[in-house]
Amino acid sequence: MRLPRPGRKVPAGGFGVALDPIEHHRIAAGATFPGLESRRTLPSCAAIVKCTMELMPQFEAGQTLLIDADDTLWENNIYFERAIAAFISYLNHHEYSPAEVRAALNAVERETILAHGYGLTSFTRSLVTCFERLSPAPVTEEKAERVLGFARSIAEQEIELLPGVAETLAELARRHRLILMTKGNRAEQADKLARSGLGAHFSAVEIVAEKDPPAYREVMARHALAPHTSWMIGNSPKSDINPALAAGLNAVFLFHKDTWVLEHAELDAAPHGQRLIELDAFVKLREIF
To answer: What are phi and psi of 9, to 5 degrees?
Structure first.
């Protein structure tokens, strides 16, 4: 079993246990774990998680927790993945493999994001553009409507909270200040929050066009956040963790197996004096906060 470490790429289908360089909770082959017999081989993944959580720091009340929304509080990308699978199947291209069609769509999405930002409207543009580029025949109105239907199927999804989110947020809100920090189309994200029923737990909501260090610094200044007691919590190394660390915040990476491929990135190590913790479930935030 290969253990994760700061500075490595987040793998698909697995998660990293929090190994903060400041706290230095490092698990190594041959280590002795509390409550386990000493042995040369590594214990099971479940045992590692249990023992690591026992060693993790617990932070006093009064922290500020910036919390991501999509794929942190509720499912999101799985619906896009289903729409993409239907799109690829409908295209049924004889010249390109499904993997090549997906690569083409990823490239189109990067272009669309730069011009139109994130969100369902942007994704819809990407589907249509990709279909036009790859379709061997002219795109008829009927075909275009079918492609638009794949995107509409996403909008029709009910909000599905991730396990334990509602209860955990309620508990965290009693001890800490919670701020929702999400990116994308403002109307779309506000609508999801309203439908989620979670809005009452947050003292403020920040919906930004992009999560980069300047955006985090602006939010920190607007809410007068003290960096040493402020955290960004989310599932995206690219948007939630790395830029937050660069802005001076602490961070908690919550692994989600269906994180959008365009959000994959190497996890940066926490700079000196900051903390980076990795967890595999939202409910485990209660064990450290």
So the answer is: -75, 135
Low-confidence ranges of the chain (pLDDT < 50): 1-43, 45, 48, 50-53
Give dist(CA 181, CA 241) in Å, integer: 12
Could you tell me the two tokens for 106?
């990823």
Total residue count of the chain as it appears in this document: 289
pTM beyond 0.85, yes or no: no
38-43 — which CB contacts under 8 Å span 24+ positions? Answer: 42/1, 42/3
Cα–Cα separations (whole angstroms), residue 62 to 35, 46, 172, 181, 222: 32, 31, 10, 18, 18
| Helical pair 141-155 and 77-91, crossing angle rounded to 10 deg | 160
What single string gives the DSSP state of each residue in 239-275? Answer: IIIHHHHHTT-EEEEE--TT--GGG--BPPPPPTT--
Torsion sign over Cα 247, 253, 259, 264: positive
**SS3 state of residue 215:** helix
DSSP state letter for 141? H
pLDDT digits over 189-231, tens only? 999 999 999 999 999 999 999 999 999 999 999 999 999 999 9
Give, as one character, the DSSP assignment of residue 7. T
* Residue-wise burial string across 75-94, b where 16 or more C-beta atoms lie within 10 A, e elsewhere: bbbebbeebbeebbeebebe
